[in-house]
Amino acid sequence: MKIKSYICLLLILLTFSLASCGGKEVSSATISRDDEFVGGNLSFVYDEHSRTIYIGGEGEFIQYYDKDLTRNWEEGNRIGFKITAPSEVENLKKTTLEMNGVTFTDMFVKIDGQQQDFFNIYPLVTENTKEIVFKITWEENISTQTYTIKIVEGTALLDNEGNVKEFKTEK
User: Fold this and answer.
1) CB 155: neighbour CB atoms within 10 A?
2) What is the DSSP letter of 93?
3) Domain-embedded: residue 54
4) What is the β-pairing status of strands 156-158 and 61-62?
5) What CATH code is carried by the domain that includes residue 32?
6) Are strands 44-47 and 52-55 parallel, antiparallel or unpaired?
């Protein structure tokens, strides 16, 4: 009888420990173009289930931006997105974003001193960029979510003089 009780207790403990691995899941972020449409008037599709953003299209151009110290931007082509946290996230101050090997914190927009539930990202795009991957951890004990930005075939870049630069093709 004691052995059955120990086995039952062991199974209960095992179940709880497996259930807590990896953190809890929350819904995906809501992603839209940023309010300024950085990058230009580009086609935009967000597949929330695969967490994939498709940007651009045949005959569309990603705009060039000069260096901007107020935004901490290097010169080059950029695209902008507005990312809104899932409603289940309770502590936005714990959110981290990892993109291109850099971790960002405290990125939520403040309006009149009030922290909002969204932030903007403006990744740099080069002729070698076909996709950009970024990861968001909303708060402790919540699984990290991976998102992918894909530049749609046929999209081109504009340089600082307005000339068209094509994306490099793989050989």
Assistant:
1) 24
2) G
3) yes
4) parallel
5) 2.60.40
6) antiparallel
